[in-house]
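Structure ticket #2291
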Amino acid sequence: MKRPFVKTLREAGDVFLDSFLLKNIVLVQAIGICPIIAIATNLKYGVVLSVCTALVLLPASLFMSLCGDKLPAWLRAPLYTVGAAAILLGAAVFLDQLVSHELYAVLYLFIPLMAVNTLVSYRAGGFSVSHEPLVALADALASSLGFGLVICLVSMMREAAAFGTLWGIPLGLPLTLPEAAMPYAAFVMLGFMAAFLQWVKNLLSRRAQRRREGGAAQ
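Resolution: structure written out below.
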């Protein structure tokens, strides 16, 4: 029996909220941290890696949702990995030839590595196989945006703190901290961001609990 579209749409909305914020792929599930630690020192780098993540995760999730359960388990990972590598090869050529050779020179090693990012294998290879295409796409989009939000925020803070610039434009700050470009600084920032997200979730949970108790008392 075919599932009602309204229920699928509602599930897609719930999945989007969970994957983007409540269960953020980086801050809650600790997936996709490596590129943030290694290269998120400039907002341009964060934006490029965010776009590359979406370019890979969206088609991979859709494909695995449509065809994943028809394929043997041993074949799934090689298929979406090869597909991701092909997409990222095209993205690298586009970046080098049409956008910025300087950006490509910095990211040429990290763009291909996105093909084997645990974010792709965890969401496309795990979640999408057992969910309908609309839900899988909602999860892929939310996961990409959640990853992009975190890597861009970390990139902005590290670039401003370490180099006194944003998108390469000088901010005129009186003080810079070159240590912010070191990997440990990204760990510290991620820790504070994860703690802040948990605080917000707890605050919303307490408010919802008080609202329920108030409604029950009436």
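Closing remark: The mean pLDDT is 88.
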